[in-house]
Amino acid sequence: MYSTEIEVKTGGRAVVHDLTSQIQEFLAEAEAADGLLHVFVPHATAGLAILETGAGSDDDLLTALDELLPRDDRWRHQHGSKGHGRDHVLPGLVPPYASVPVLDGAPALGTWQSVCLVDTNIDNPVRHVRFSYLAG
Question: Pfam families, alphabetically (predicted)?
C-alpha cells in the first residue's frame, strides 16, 4: 500500500474543490498499475463527492446543500460561525471517503467525473486529504 496526505486551502467560503489532478499525480508517484484508490478526509465537517465540475454541477451541489442544510440557528451543535452545526451534518450526506478503481495507473472515472472535496465549513480554511493506493 502507498499513502500520502495533502493539504488543501479552501478559504473562508463553501467550496467544491476538484482533487482529480492531485490524484493523478499521486498515482504516478505511486507507480500505480491496477488496484484501488481510497480517498479520505479526516475532518468532521467535510466530505467527498464524485461529480461533474465546471458545468455548474459543483455550484448546484452547494446550492442543494444550502437548501437542505440552511446556515441558521436551528442546529443543536452551536459554536463557531452562525449555522456551523449544519457543517457537522454534512458528512452524513456527503461522506468523508470515496473509493475508485485504478486501471493501468489511472483512476477509472467516467468521462465527466471528478473526485471533489466538499467543504461548507467557513471556519476552517485548511483541509487535509489522504490518498491511499492498494495494488491489485
Answer: YjbQ (PF01894)
Distance CA 90, CA 104 (A): 33
Q: How many CB atoms lie within 10 A of CB 95?
A: 14
Which region among 23-37, 73-87, 107-121 has the lowest average model confidence (pLDDT)? 73-87
Please provide the average confidence, as pLDDT, over all residues in the chain.
95
13-22 pLDDT per residue, tens: 999 999 999 9
The pLDDT of residue 50 is 98
β-pairing, 46-51 vs 106-107, is: unpaired
Host domain of residue 69: 2-135
Q: Report whether 35 contacts 99 (CB < 8 A).
A: no
114-119 and 97-103 beta bridge pairing:
unpaired
Domains of the chain: total: 1
Strand partners, 9: 126
Which parts of 1-136 are beta strand (E)? 2-9, 15-18, 35-40, 46-51, 97-103, 106-107, 114-119, 126-135
In eight-state DSSP terms, residue 61 is H
CA–CA dist 83, 92 (Å, integer): 16
